[in-house]
Each structure stands twice: as structure tokens, then as C-alpha cells.
Specification:
By secondary structure, this protein is of the alpha+beta class. The protein has three helices and eight strands. The protein has one domain.
């Protein structure tokens, strides 16, 4: 049952979000003054098929898939690793990533409901098999002094 809940949450989070290249027309002036260029390196990519999907969550509700993620991005996959620069407001984020090899914008599952595409989280923290990691374990502060994030897919 835990595996099923995990997969439903992961699929709903990735499916319900609109993926775009750093486009957000609703940013107010205070947030614009506090923007930072986050450099994110995603590694352990098996092939160059599809895209790398990146979700930045500012609340636990977003992380659990109960609300849309604050920011969502995608970049073409490259075998081994991808490094991207994203302009975002400074803040604390839970970062979720997956390799969408077939570009269907969802994390694909096998008949046993286990992911068939690689995924990862900020701080490279993984929960127990079949469960999301604890929200507070993957929170990552992103500001001018802490703007590099490295995520290892598995």
C-alpha cells in the first residue's frame, strides 16, 4: 500500500504541473529584487532520450502533490549529466527531478508500480523503498551564497 501511495503522489505531482522554461508572469517586485541564478547539476543519466524534469516546491503541499509546484522546468537530457542555470527567487525549496525519457511528462511505472525512469531529490535524500523522503530532509536553501545544487538520479 505504501508503494502505491508513493507512486500515486509522484505521478500526480509530475502530471498535474505545467512544465515550462523559467516563465512566470506573476512575480512581484520584491521577489524580482531577490532573484538568484541557481546552477543545478543532474547526474547518473543513462541516455540522451527525452527531458530532465525539475520541480521546485516551496511548501509541503506542493511536495506531496496536493498543490502545483512553485516552479517547473525541463531541459533536454544528455547522457551522464546535465547542468542548467535557472533564475528563481531566493528561498527554501524541496527539489524533485526525473528523467522523462519518452517525454510524456509523467514518471513511468512498471507492472509492479515501481518507477522505470530515474528520479532524485535535493540533498540526494531518498526515503524508504516505495515512499517519498521526509519533506524536511530534502529542503534546500537557495540564495546568492548557496546557488549550486547537485542531484544524483537513481
Amino acid at each position: 500500500m505504501k508503494i502505491y501511495k508513493f507512486l500515486v503522489v509522484v505521478i500526480s505531482v509530475f502530471y498535474c504541473n505545467t512544465f515550462a522554461f523559467a516563465e512566470d508572469n506573476a512575480i512581484d517586485d520584491d521577489i524580482i529584487d531577490n532573484r538568484v541564478i541557481m546552477e543545478i547539476e543532474i547526474n547518473n543519466i543513462d541516455n540522451s532520450n527525452g527531458n530532465i524534469m525539475i520541480l521546485l516546491c516551496r511548501t509541503q503541499e506542493e511536495f506531496l502533490g496536493n498543490a502545483p509546484s512553485s516552479f517547473a522546468f525541463f531541459f533536454p537530457a544528455k547522457k551522464k549529466s546535465v547542468t542548467a542555470k535557472i533564475t528563481i527567487p531566493e528561498g527554501i525549496y524541496a527539489i524533485k527531478v526525473f528523467h522523462d525519457e519518452n517525454q510524456n511528462k509523467i514518471l513511468d511505472l512498471n507492472t509492479s508500480n515501481h518507477p522505470t525512469e530515474k528520479f532524485g531529490f535535493s540533498n540526494n535524500f531518498f526515503g524508504r523503498y516505495g515512499e517519498l523522503p521526509p519533506y524536511n530532509e530534502i529542503l534546500r536553501k537557495v540564495d546568492k551564497n548557496n546557488s549550486f545544487v547537485k542531484i544524483h538520479l537513481r
